[in-house]
Design goal:
314 residues; alpha/beta; Rossmann fold; 7-stranded parallel sheet; elongated; D-isomer_DH_NAD-bd; D-isomer_2_OHA_DH_cat_dom; oxidoreductase; NAD binding; NAD(P)-bd_dom_sf
Length: 314
């Protein structure tokens, strides 16, 4: 059995895989080794280097493990047509992303951006107008592993959490839950709106300018899912008109964000370069999921973790 990686884990991680699975032949090669892919049984990738044309020659490929959560750049239709199993690393982002989201919220609530500006200007000004997180309401769009972890931490700070998902089905660490169709009903109650939604046909441009009109003028909007949940010109309009107080953006419709984009210089926007999930433990956790699944695979079990519904894309 041949397992092809299109990225390089650390040397000790490679060694551990080879020692734990002596029945497998591991190939670690970056960029994607197209020749090795032709005879590979399993591909482990970050999901951005595999194209439909590759699958035409990958006759032996049976399983693709994506060492990330996003799948929007994957040739899902072609993978489905070949009946190739697709899994991802869903769940490994929840700790670093929840910490990043909390850091940004507390930074704004405690006026740290203004404090930093005053320091650069050599200005001693205690008039910072900080607010408290305690007693506020957070609306969390996307109630999977990341959303639930964000909800858990916010609840510990005394925040009321409203979850929002496609079905309106209850999720952990949410005080209440609504469906996508009920968004406008709860937006006026939210002090913080956090999108952690993936990019799917159902979520693309889900949020509109009308949604921002429903929000409090003091609301903070945070996008840590995918940039196409809203058209950027509509968000830009809402920020320019101060329909909301702040936006914290880790993802964008087109990345990297163009250096001339207005977001860079707006006083009520924080630009994060799609870095909220970065962590020294990222690959460690991804390989833990892969190793557990590989054990199941070798035991001819179909109980793999994080199998993707190729029709839905998640």
């Amino acid at each position: 059995m041949k397992i092809l990686f299109s990225f390089y884990p650390k040397r000790d991680q490679q060694t551990r895989l080879i020692e734990n699975f002596p029945q497998a032949e591991f190939i670690f090669q970056k960029p994607l080794d197209e020749e090795a892919l032709k005879t590979a049984d399993i591909l482990v990738t970050y999901g951005e280097d595999l194209h439909a044309s590759h699958l035409e020659k990958a006759d032996q490929l049976k399983w693709i493990m994506v060492a990330s959560a996003g799948l929007e750049k994957m040739p899902l239709d072609e993978i489905a047509a070949r009946n190739i199993i697709l899994t991802n690393a869903r769940g490994i982002h929840k700790i670093p992303m929840a910490e990043s989201i909390l850091a940004h919220i507390l930074s704004i609530k405690k006026s740290l951006p203004l404090m930093a500006k005053n320091q650069r200007n050599g200005e001693w000004s205690p008039k910072l107008n900080p607010t408290e997180l305690f007693g506020s309401t957070a609306l969390i769009l996307g109630t999977g592993a990341i959303g639930s972890e964000v909800g858990r931490i916010l609840q510990a700070f005394g925040v009321h959490t409203i979850g929002c998902n496609r079905s309106g089905k209850m999720a952990s660490s949410m005080d209440t839950i609504v469906s996508f169709g009920q968004l406008k009903e709860v937006l006026p109650d939210a002090d913080i709106v956090i999108s952690i939604l993936p990019s799917t046909e159902e979520t693309k441009h889900l949020l509109t300018y009308e949604h921002f009109q429903c929000m409090k003028p003091s609301a903070i909007f945070m996008n840590f899912g995918r940039g196409d949940v809203i058209k950027e010109e509509e968000l830009l309009r809402a920020l320019t008109e101060e329909r909301i107080a702040y936006a914290v953006l880790d993802v964008f419709e087109k990345e990297p964000l163009h250096k001339e984009h207005p977001f860079w210089k707006m006083h009520n926007v924080i630009v994060s370069p799609h870095a909220s999930s970065h962590s020294s433990q990222y690959v460690v956790r991804a390989l833990e999921i892969f190793s557990e699944n590989l054990t199941e695979w070798l035991n001819e079990s179909n109980q793999l973790e994080n199998i993707i519904d190729l029709k839905r894309g998640y």
